[in-house]
Design goal:
Bound molecules: guanosine-5'-triphosphate
Strand order of the largest sheet: 2-3-1-6-7
GO molecular function, one term: diguanylate cyclase activity
Shape: elongated
Number of helices: 12
Number of strands: 7
Protein name: diguanylate cyclase
Strand content: 5-15%
GO cellular component, one term: plasma membrane
Organism: Roseateles depolymerans
Distance between the termini: 56 Å
Catalytic activity: 2 GTP = 3',3'-c-di-GMP + 2 diphosphate
């Protein structure tokens, strides 16, 4: 009992401290409460020598039952973004407390069987969600699933032990290796699950930070540095595997007018709708990045000129057909111009040269009246500087991928 008390006290303190750091917005709060409830539950059970039996048994086991439900609530919130169904969250602890009170009249070995089965049942919703959607979330959640399964198994073992050795369960302070070990092991597993849950929360924060460092917050596209790094990677792979790589620069037409006419937030909505429209036409291996403002790039591995032109023409038509509905109900349309270049493996074009060429192609598309696609021949000489490129564009920044 002392081991469990100190274990849950340590877990509670660590969760509480973790919550005061950058993890405060996560679901650790519910687990912290669950851990305190389990700790107080065990304190009440341990005080049965001083307190009336009904008080320590119902209060202690009841608090442990509520603590287990809180753990499952935390797992559900973490994995699904929603808590347990309300009827279970409130109903399960209430029914558990009633059952525990009812079991008081039973012989001790039967009460042990009943309470062990009750706790094991309360753990099931947490295990279920961890083995389902939780299995594909953070890796640390798998260790939480495993430890909760071990805790449930140990509780079941305790029930079996009590059924087969009722003589070991004659009075509360009777020592028995079988019942002591199963009890200790099941709750040590719960403590282990708590530490696994903290790790899963850290894993989630790390993943969010990684996403924030590599993606654009408004559109969810890769940011410029990441897209640039992937372009270089795909060029290298294209050379090695002797396959062409398509590079596309997309620029929304007269986007300043969209902002000026409909407002900046309508412009943001247009950018999001545009990205969704483009993305649904891409293959999983294609890369879409936001190069800046209303400019986006596509890196299309193993794509020849015919394939890239067809795709970009479809994108242009799709964008033209989009009806963008702003929050105030206003509907408006946008168009896009695109420059396309194909890097042939034997040409050994650098990312900088490719960008200069695609920039020229976009300039042609804009100059020809916008809402069109211009395919640039990669054999055309690339100018040494950005002279003649799309006016107003910052030159290609080779350090963007650094
Ligand atoms: N709403 C919104 N507007 C943006 C964002 N990023 C850039 N813009 C706007 O995009 C506009 C780009 O304007 P310009 O570079 O003049 O280009 P344009 O009006 O699209 O004209 P062309 O490209 O020549 O067809 C500017 O008004 C920027 O403020 C953004 O994240 N949200």
């Amino acid at each position: 009992m002392l081991a469990l008390l100190s274990g849950f006290a340590m877990l509670g303190v660590q969760l509480w401290i973790a919550r005061r750091s950058r993890l405060r917005y996560l679901d650790l709060g519910v687990w912290t409460w669950g851990s305190w409830l389990l700790l107080f539950g065990f304190c009440l059970l341990a005080s049965r020598i001083f307190l009336p039996l009904w008080f320590s048994a119902v209060g202690g086991n009841g608090l442990i039952a509520v603590g287990i439900v809180m753990y499952c609530e935390g797992i559900h919130r973490h994995v699904t973004g929603r808590g347990l169904p309300r009827w279970w969250l409130w109903g399960a602890p209430a029914v558990a407390c009633l059952l525990i009170a009812w079991m008081l009249a039973w012989p001790l070995y039967l009460r042990t069987i009943g309470i062990s089965l009750l706790f094991a049942t309360l753990l099931l919703p947490g295990i279920g969600v961890l083995l389902g959607p939780g299995w594909r979330a953070e890796y640390s959640l798998r260790s939480v699933a495993l430890t909760l399964i071990l805790a449930t198994g140990s509780l079941l073992l305790r029930a079996v032990h009590a059924a087969r050795h009722p003589e070991d369960y004659q009075h509360l302070l009777q020592s028995s290796l079988g019942q002591g070990l199963t009890f200790l092991f099941s709750f040590i597993c719960l403590i282990g699950a708590g530490f696994g849950f903290v790790l899963a929360n850290f894993e989630r924060v790390a993943r969010r930070m990684e996403d924030m460092a590599s993606t654009d917050a408004l559109t969810g596209c890769l940011n410029r540095a990441t897209a640039d790094a992937l372009l270089r990677h795909e060029l290298e792979r294209g050379r090695r595997e002797n396959t062409p790589v398509g590079f596309v620069l997309l620029d929304l037409d007269h986007f300043k007018v969209v902002n000026d006419t409909h407002g900046h937030s309508a412009g943001d909505t247009a950018l999001q709708c545009f990205v969704a429209e483009v993305r649904r036409r891409l293959r999983a291996s294609d890369v879409m990045g936001r190069w800046g403002g209303e400019e986006f790039v596509l890196v299309l591995p193993s794509t020849d000129q015919a394939g890239a032109s067809r795709l970009v023409e479809q994108i242009r038509e799709g964008v033209q057909a989009l009806q963008i509905r702003h929050a105030c109900g206003e509907v408006f349309r946008i168009t896009v111009s695109a420059g396309v270049v194909i890097a042939q493996p034997h040409e050994h074009l650098s990312a900088e040269q490719l960008f200069t060429l695609v920039d020229q192609a976009l300039y042609q598309a804009k100059g020809a009246g916008r809402n069109r696609v211009h395919v640039q021949d990669s054999a055309a000489p690339a100018p040494a500087s950005s002279t003649g490129a799309h006016p107003g564009r910052p030159p290609f920044a080779p350090d963007a991928s650094a």
